[in-house]
Amino acid sequence: MSQTIAAFDPAVDAPAHHHPVYDYDSGPPVARGKFAIWLFLATEIMFFSGLIGAYVVLRTGAGSWPNPEERLAVPITALNTFILITSSWLMVRALLASKTGDRTAVLKWLGATIIGGAVFVGIQVYEYFELIHHGNFPNGDIFWSTFYTMTGFHGTHVIVGLIWLIAVWFATWRGHYTKENNLGIELAGLYWHFVDLVWVLLFTVVYLF
Amino acid sequence: MSDNHDKFHFNAEHIFIKLFILTAAEIAWGYMAKDWGRLLLWGGLISCATWKALLIATYFMHLKFEGWIVKTLIIPTPFLVLVIFGYVIPDVANREGHMIHPIGAQYDPTTGVVVRDLAASEGVEQEPASGGTDGGH
User: I need a labelling partner for B54 at 20 to 30 A (CA). Which of A54, B62, B64, B127 fits?
Assistant: First the structure.
């Protein structure tokens, strides 16, 4: 395989960087942004696995464990799960709309996704408020500390995802994305679906077990 | 650049409905199987959750349609997760009063015998403070 280094061309290359210029694509066989987001998501999987692993050890190591049903509002959180799944589907619709170049549809679907995510966060904040109002603080016992740690970190991810989606919405509104260039929407979507995926597992482990 | 978009062919509504039904089934199972034993309860819940997670990753995140490099990045992680769980199995497996080193205890590393139970000696309550039932075990 021929991998020669082309001569430095000051008209093309930024003189300040002096990086080598190759006559072949030295990057991965996928968009760099997508490569980066999947690499990031792999680290996120390990992060949440650490949290869930610690929870499993603490729970099985405890003398007894309270029934989550008796401490948590499972029905309202179940509703929240449906909302997040719906929001994930809306994000799929937004990406599909971006492939057709229909900017109005992208704005509509992205807006609906953001509203779904905001409702999820709102319900979680309400849940936290009610729990703390009734004296259930994170340092109450091991149940509460694991509950607040896992759901808190996930909630933080949802908020980060919302900020990202809002930025993408404004970029779409300004006409930044086109039918051919919509990778930014796809990357935000990947993160959003990942947040949904993590919640599917957390809801099962924390609320239903 | 938006690569591979033309290859992402799947019915989003079909997957969405599947996710909805699985979530409803999982919640129903969580209530129904409470008295059927842990194996059935946890087995059903983990099956539903895993199925949903796979649907999201495979279709919504397009993993099925991605090239080898993305798959290479992400496919090892479940196995690494299994390593983590395998690492903590000794504590999990020895929970029936035979834990190698209970939480909050000092133990002799040569014999594995607990030499001082910090939680007990300091009067820390090990059981959940209130509203606790033995739902977990």
Answer: A54
Let me know if residue B23 belongs to a domain: yes
How would CATH label the architecture of A65-208?
Answer: Up-down Bundle (1.20)
Name which of A42-56, A81-95, A111-125, A154-168 the model is least confident about.
A42-56
By C-alpha distance, the chain B residue nearest A57 is B92
Contact A82 B23 (CB under 8 A): yes
B67 within some domain: yes
Q: Is residue B17 part of a domain?
A: yes
A65-101 residues labelled b (16+ CB within 10 A) or e (exposed): bbbbbebbbbeebbebbbbbbbbbbbbbbbbbbbbee
Q: How many domains does chain B have?
A: 1
Taking the CB of residue A22, how many other CB atoms lie within 10 A of it? 12
How far away is chain B from the Cα of A9, in angstroms, using its nearest Cα? 25
User: What's the pLDDT tens digit per position in B62-96?
Assistant: 999 888 889 988 888 888 888 887 877 776 665 55
- B46 touching chain A per CB within 8 A: yes
The tally of CA atoms less than 13 A away on the side-chain side of residue A99 is 14
Q: Verify whether the Cβ–Cβ distance B69 to A57 is below 8 Å.
A: no
Instruction: Specify the DSSP class assigned to residue B6.
Output: G
For A86, which residue in chain B has the nearest alpha carbon? Answer: B16
Kindly report, residue by residue over A106-143, the tens digit of the pLDDT.
999 999 999 999 999 999 999 999 999 999 999 888 89
Please check whether residue B110 lies inside any domain of the structure: no
Q: List the one residue out of A186, A196, A181 whose CA is nearest residue A164.
A: A186
Each domain of chain A, given as residue ranges in start order, spans 65-208
Residue A136 CA to residue B78 CA, distance in Å, equals: 34
Query: What is the helix (H) or strand (E) element at residue B3, kind and residue range?
Result: none
For residue B117, list its beta bridge partners.
B105
Determine whether the interchain pair B88/A56 forms a contact, defined as Cβ–Cβ distance below 8 Å.
yes
A9, two tokens:
């061309």
Domain hosting B59: range is: 11-74
